[in-house]
Write a structure and sequence with these properties.
The complex is a heterodimer of chains A (306) and B (268). Chain A has ten helices and 13 strands. Chain A has 306 residues and is α/β, with parallel strands linked by helices. Chain A has two domains: 216 residues, P-loop containing nucleotide triphosphate hydrolases (Rossmann fold, 3-Layer(aba) Sandwich); 64 residues, 2-Layer Sandwich (Alpha-Beta Plaits), CATH 3.30.70. A six-stranded mixed sheet of chain A has the order 5-6-7-3-8-9, sandwiched between helices. A four-stranded antiparallel sheet of chain A has the order 11-12-10-13, with helices on one face. The longest helix of chain A is centred in the middle third of the chain and has 16 residues. In chain B, 69% of the residues lie in helices and 1% in strands. In chain B, strands 1-2 form a two-stranded antiparallel sheet. The model of chain B has no long low-confidence stretch (mean pLDDT 93). The chains are: A alpha/beta (306), B mainly alpha (268). At the A-B interface, strand 5 and helix 2 of A face helix 1 and helix 6 of B.
């Protein structure tokens, strides 16, 4: 059986009293575009550093295609990426920086330099020293550096952070293109729209622990379905909602009444409203955004902590 | 490891401090030779000091005597103290450690690059000193420490040999610089620390009651080359330096290696 790209079991990283990563389990399968989502300081980068063998776990294990990155960089064969902002030698040109990392990669990596520069649209600036590069150009060069390894698994740490809107759009398009080409991508982010747009699976982390892991569609489904309702008489409508079996959590807000209800219940409710003489102006299904789910999951934790 | 070594040399070639160090190694003998040509006196109280007006071959030897105090340690520390710390400073350790070279190979490349630089600095200094000295004082026979006359050809050979012997404690200083660079992760701290180490060892040598330790101090090994300038050659201090210098170098290298291999790369 083929080994999965990433298998993390019971991963822990402790710095003194601080537990940066707390028993994290992850399984990332071939072809996944996997979002690793959490607020700043949730331990995303620390986890990625352990996956890349840059720091040693306090406990637990990481396997990349079945190999342990703590033992040898051979485990990184077919794996590329960067943690935090990609860094290069400021006194060398972009091309020379890529030549250096390609030499460190060995094999035919040096022959991919031109293609990689073209993919991230830096060919024209390749002769410039990195010291003069903008943040966005460095991010793109980071991707180019990763592509030299011809990876099957790409680990990216907040690749769109600090980019302007056009830069973000380009970065997402690039990741989409790479993923469509069959690459498995792990993408850490605190930008939910990004994860929602790009990823099929997600792990939501809060203070070092996984709060949810699975398909985004599944997460949204379990979040239940909500409706927003605008009527000719919201006060009376609210009373009808309260009396209707199956309608939960009905509350009046500035843009109408929000509630949770199954589809059949919503249909019954519409009849009940009309029968009570309330006209329905608007009844809209509200699917929870990843953002809602994210806050629900991360803020529950804070509530428990308090 | 040759890949890492080759690229470490490339990186050195693109960094100012390399030229600062090598430039100092070249400039100091030129300045010294010019000063010798302008003044009649000389440092009579040191070996070869009184011969600097008679032969240019005395000049590299006087520089070896003075250089051990802080000039050569500083030149070495400039690069040795920086070679790992600059990766921390630039955040590039994560860049090179996530490619296909093992940490040990990268460490080996850095060590070799530091050694190459140190050897280059010492020999550039010696070569410049011989040429500049020869121009101002002539390529005349040299008087050995035993008072015998050494012909120019043999003098050149002995100077070359002296530089090699001098390299033993110099490379030990380089290893200590590498260790401090790895441990402190800060270039300035490592450079100053290496220099402080070298000065402290000299201080220990002049402390009363510690005379017994003197043969085993690194600073003492900087004088071992003088054995070559005796007639017949006194190999004892050279053989001594050959095993005392590694006593400083090898533990530093092993410690730096272990730290480099095991450290968390959390910055950058």
């Amino acid at each position: 059986m083929a080994q999965v790209p990433v298998e993390v079991r019971g991963l822990v990283k402790r710095y003194g009293d601080l537990v940066a990563v707390d028993h994290v389990d992850l399984t990332i399968e071939e072809g996944d575009v996997y979002g690793y989502l959490g607020p700043n300081g949730a331990g995303k980068t620390t986890s990625l550093r352990m996956m890349l063998g840059l720091i040693r776990p306090t406990a637990g294990s990481v396997r990349l295609f079945g190999r342990d990155p703590q033992l040898s960089v051979k485990a990184l064969e077919g794996v590329a990426g960067f943690v935090e902002a990609p860094r290069f030698y400021p006194y060398l040109s972009a091309r020379r920086n890529l030549e250096l990392v390609a030499a460190f990669d060995g094999g035919d990596a040096p022959s991919r330099i031109d293609d990689a520069l073209a993919t991230v649209e830096l060919t024209g600036r390749a002769g410039d020293k990195i010291g003069g590069y903008s943040h966005g150009m460095r991010q793109r060069l980071g991707i180019a550096g990763a592509l030299l390894r011809n990876p099957r698994l790409l680990l990216l740490d907040e690749p769109a952070t600090g980019l302007d809107p056009a830069g973000m759009r380009d970065m997402r398009a690039l990741i989409r293109r790479l993923a469509d080409g069959g690459m498995t991508v792990v993408l850490s982010s605190h930008i939910m729209a990004e994860v929602e747009e790009l990823c099929n699976k997600v792990a939501i982390v809060r203070s070092g622990r996984i709060a949810y892991e699975g398909a985004i569609s599944e997460l949204k489904r379990t979040a239940g379905s909500g409706y927003r309702l605008r009527t000719t008489d919201d006060d009376r409508a609210l009373a009808v909602c309260a009396a209707q079996p199956g309608v939960e959590d009905a509350r009046l807000a500035h843009d109408g009444i929000h509630m949770n209800a199954e589809e059949a219940v919503a249909a019954d409710l519409s009849i009940a409203l009309v029968e009570s003489g309330v006209g329905i102006v608007e009844m809209v299904r509200e699917s929870a955004t990843l953002e809602d789910l994210f806050f629900r999951l991360t803020e529950d934790e804070q509530a428990v902590a308090v | 490891m040759t890949t890492a070594y080759r690229w470490e040399l490339t990186k050195l070639r693109y960094q100012k401090r390399t030229y600062l160090g090598l430039g100092a190694a070249v400039l100091v003998p030129i300045i010294f030779a010019v000063a010798v040509s302008l003044r009649n006196g000389g440092p009579d109280d040191v070996a070869f000091g009184r011969y600097i007006h008679q032969t240019g071959f005395a000049i590299p030897l006087v520089l070896l005597l003075f250089g051990s105090i802080w000039m050569f340690p500083l030149i070495t520390a400039l690069v040795a103290g920086d070679i790992v710390a600059s990766e921390d400073h630039n955040g590039t350790l994560k860049t090179i450690l996530t490619r296909s070279l093992e940490r040990g190979q990268i460490y080996g490349g850095k060590l070799l690059a530091v050694f190459t630089y140190t050897v280059a600095a010492i020999f550039l200094n010696g070569l410049t000193a011989v040429i500049a000295g020869g121009i101002v004082s002539g390529f005349n026979p040299l008087t050995s420490l035993s008072g015998t006359v050494v012909q120019p050809g043999r003098a050149l050979l002995l100077i070359g040999g002296s530089l090699l012997v001098y390299l033993m404690p110099m490379l030990a200083i380089a290893c200590i610089g590498l260790l401090l660079s790895t441990v402190t992760r800060n270039s300035a701290a490592a450079v100053v620390g290496t220099l402080m180490f070298s000065l402290l060892v000299q201080l220990v040598a002049i402390l009363p009651g510690l005379g017994g330790a003197k043969p085993y101090l690194l600073s003492t090994q900087f004088d071992a080359w003088q054995g070559l300038l005796r007639e017949p050659v006194d190999w004892q201090p050279i053989a001594h330096a050959a095993w005392v210098s590694p006593l400083y170098a090898v533990p530093a290298l092993i410690a730096a290696y272990l730290v480099f291999l095991r450290r968390d790369v959390a910055g950058g």
